[in-house]
Amino acid sequence: MKKLLQLFAFSILLGNSINAQSQDVINLLKDWKFQTGDNMEYSKPGFDDSKWKTIYPGRFWEEQGVRDYNGYAWYRIKVVIPSKIKERAYYKDSLKFFLGVIDDADQAFLNGKQIGQTGWYPENFQKAIDEKSYQKLRRYAVSTKSPDILWDKENVIAVRVYDIWYGGGITSKPIDISMCDWTDSLKIDYQSNGFQRGVNDKIGKKVFLNNISKKIWEGTFSIDISIAESKKNVYKSNVVVSLKPNESKEISFYLEQQSDIATVRYSFIEKQTKIELFATEEMPYILTPPTAKTPRINGAKIFGCRPNNPFLFTIPATGERPIKFSAEGLPNGLNLDAVTGIITGKVTTKGEYKVKLSAENKLGKSVRDFKIVIGDQISLTPPMGWNSWNCWGLSVDDAKVRDCADYMVSSGLVNHGWTYVNIDDGWEAASRNAQGEILSNEKFPDMNKLSDYVHNKGLKLGIYTSPGPKTCGNYLGSYLHESQDAQTYGKWGIDYLKHDWCSYGDIATNMNIDELMRPYHNMRYALNEVPRDIVYSLCQYGMGSVWEWGNKVGGDLWRTTGDIVDTWESLSGIGFSQDVAAPYSQPSGFNDPDMLIVGWVGWGPNLHPTKLTTSEQYLHISLWALQSAPMLIGCDLTKLDGFTLNLLTNDEVIEIDQDILGKSAQVVYREGTVQIWSKDLEDGSKAVGIFNLGETPIKGQIKWSDIKVNGKQTVRDVWRQKDMGVFTDKFEATVPVHGVYLVKISPAK
After folding, report:
1. What pLDDT score was predicted for residue 20?
2. Model confidence at 8, in pLDDT bands (50, 70, 90)?
3. Looking at the structure, do residues 550 and 651 belong to the same domain, yes or no?
4. CA 495 to chain centre
5. What is the helix (H) or strand (E) element at residue 717, kind and residue range?
6. Strands 32-36, 53-55: parallel, antiparallel or unpaired by DSSP?
7. What percent of the chain has pLDDT over 90?
8. DSSP secondary structure string, 653-681?
9. Which pLDDT score is estimated for 537?
């Protein structure tokens, strides 16, 4: 799961930066020396680390060849600290070492002397969980008068790291050395509030200028908004502000919704020094047209269920209500509610059943061919739904889950194929009953009633456990109780199980493939005895190349990576490393790069708008769809804004994810910061994404030779749902920073 309670991304305002002339920064984003194990001699400047592995900070060590390792490790780097950065600084008191997020605990040393510690080591495991040290930013200050700083000479920085579960190391960017400056006392907070609709349907937000010092700050705060491509200014404001110690000023702005990429620049110029503090972000821009009032049947074109097990499927259809549903060719034992579109019942006979679904309202009728497969496999397309972890963490409860189910229906998500409502960790009671059965805690007073509530809405309910004695949140796991727990889940009406490695690392005698497979085999055998379809999600972070054997232990999907958080580094590091697993994707066997990080997230209980830019969110959904990845929303649906809802309800993008071939896109072009991924679709067309991983817009080019097509091809912009024309040999498009251009390419008619 989460790597304990999951590294949180940054609470720092990553967009905040200061004018380059105002402060010198020594960048530490370079090669460090790295060694697993523990020896305090490693902190000393004279230690010979020449034979150590070279590693790059900003990524988990598991992503850099140090697989399946938990425990102690050391980072070391040698750096000259020039005295000129002190001489040119406005304040000259302290030197700041910023090491970002470290997973889980660390001690930092400068030339052998400890300069800081965050987190707790194995002797205080529970305190590490309670304090969530793996979420905290490491900022360590050293007096400029300290003899530990060797000015204009080589210094050795050593960092001792302890990782509890998957996802270890110095994991965020930036990391650097600089003087503590006035900008450490003043922050532009534009990330605590997301963009919202205001009067006359204008869009805007609240921004805060926070003085976290004991000094009075005076200056001018400005907001400038410009169209990225044309540089045309569409909004400008200037406010003179005076901030008392520890005071916060709120500044609001609203303007018309933009259809083009627009950049917001927040700026504070200090009155005395004229030094500027600034931050930038993208405004949300909406690409997908509004949903039509005429009926349209959406989602997957195939559905699997085992013989004699309860069948539940809701026909996902958009359009003005009321809609009348009908179905021709339903197998015996199934019944359709013509008002809700919910199909229920049981089918006893194996086979493939061709069904014609219809949805009709006063404006028209939609018909779709649909296949029901009664057999040994379920989850024939990637699961779509919601999971509680990325928003609520361990603070999830019955009311929050019911709210999610309510909003999945009222927002219309269910009409686009979103189905599962999954409870992650934090539902388990402290002990089992006298018969050894797992119980829910006081936050979930009645699981049967909860599942009935969810099922009555045409949705499905998921739950979480670990093969170890404890979950990642230190709740009861299923170790030695697999059969009992599986039967309990069946009685409760559970439809989805996430089985998270967590403390099974304490049980495993080694980390060979047989040992990695054993706990997942055990739960699979237990689930086979339950008279109910339960989608089986393996979660062990990709150890032992799980994509090569996940199907062999009966998994329907398997996590290929550590936990994702809402930063570009996490998203890109995970998303663009999936090509190694891509060839193994197939129906009822999907690679899972983790849950979605759009909307209001926070890992509970305090939420914030995702730190991803608008373009990064489009990239995120596009890449997951191309990879046939499970789509599990991780945000608070009660805070679902118009942009996020639009992002999650583009049916042409969803159809790429839900394509019945179940194939993952693979990389067909990679050069510099540009990647092109191509996916074969069931209708013979190709879904292709041009991805820009760089810091400037690019002109991307899809060559027919790269995607193995020829002749005249029709190109359709999937996000804009717009045909771009017929092209020969290639197609070119402009791609924004950290963005995507997603197209469907089909033979021209």
Report:
1. 31
2. very low
3. yes
4. 23
5. strand 712-717
6. antiparallel
7. 80
8. HHHHHT-TT-PPPEEEEEETTEEEEEEE-
9. 98
State residue 509's pLDDT score: 86
Question: Strands 631-633, 557-559: parallel, antiparallel or unpaired by DSSP?
Answer: unpaired
Phi-psi region of 676 (alpha: psi -120 to 50; beta: other; left: phi over 0): beta
DSSP letters for 134-164: GGSEEEEEEETT-TTS-BTSEEEEEEEEEES
Per-residue CA distances from 25 to 29, 82, 111, 262 (Å): 11, 10, 20, 29
Q: Which of 521, 463, 471, 465 is nearest to 492 (CA)?
A: 463
Query: What's 731's domain CATH number?
Result: 2.60.40.1180
Select from 282, 317, 333 the last residue of a domain.
282
Tokens of 59: 């990524």
Question: What percent of the chain lies above the pLDDT cut of 70?
Answer: 95
| Structural domain includes residue 726 | yes
Q: Per residue in 371-401, pLDDT tens?
A: 999 999 999 999 999 999 999 999 999 999 9
Do 201 and 161 reside in the same domain of the chain? no
pLDDT in tens, 581-639: 999 999 999 999 999 999 999 888 888 899 999 999 999 999 999 999 999 999 999 99
- Are 561 and 351 a contacting pair, CB within 8 Å? no
- 647 and 700 housed in the same domain: no
**Which among 144, 172, 126 is positioned nearest to 11, based on CA atoms?**
172
Q: What is the pLDDT of residues 103-116, one digit of tens each?
A: 888 999 999 999 99
Residues known to be catalytic: 500, 563
Domain that holds residue 141: 24-180
> Would you say 575 and 606 are in contact if contact means Cβ atoms under 8 Å apart?
no
Asked, for residue 9, whether it belongs to a domain, the answer is no
- Residues paired with residue 544 on neighbouring β-strands, in sequence order: none
What total number of domains does the chain contain? 5
Strands 740-747 and 712-717: antiparallel
Mean pLDDT of 64-90: 90
For residues 359 and 295, is the Cβ–Cβ distance under 8 A?
Answer: yes
Query: Are 166 and 247 members of one domain?
Result: no
| Structure tokens belonging to residue 22 | 């105002």
Structure tokens at 415: 């009409």
Same domain, yes or no: 44 and 173: yes
Residue 174: predicted pLDDT: 86
User: What residue type is assigned to position 672 of the chain?
Assistant: G
* Tokens describing residue 430: 């402290």
Predicted pLDDT at 410: 97
pLDDT digits (tens, 9 = 90+) for 39-54: 999 999 999 999 999 9
* Residues composing the chain: 749
Q: What is the Cα–Cα distance from 506 to 502, expressed in whole angstroms?
A: 9
Bridge partners of residue 569, in order along the sequence: none
Whether 610 and 700 map to the same domain: the answer is no
Residue 172 token pair: 């965020």
- Indicate the helix (H) or strand (E) that contains 570: helix 568-575
| CATH at 352 | 2.60.40.10
Does residue 489 sit within a domain? yes
Same domain, 146 and 98: yes
* pTM (predicted TM-score): 0.87
Residue 450 confidence (pLDDT)? 98
Domain boundary among the residues 606, 636, 663 is at 663
What CATH number is given to the structural domain containing 44?
2.60.120.260
The pLDDT, as a whole number, for residue 126 is 54
Which residues, other chains included, contact 456 with Cβ-Cβ below 8 Å and sequence gap of 6+?
none
Residue 322 has a pLDDT of 98
At residue 729 the predicted structure's pLDDT band, cuts being 50, 70 and 90, is very high
Is residue 729 one of the residues assigned to a domain? yes
- The answer on 594 and 519 residing in a single domain is yes
Exposure of 684 by Cβ count < 10 A (0-12 exposed, 13-18 middle, 19+ buried)?
Answer: exposed
Q: CA 223, 228, 234, 237: dihedral to nearest 10 degrees? A: 10
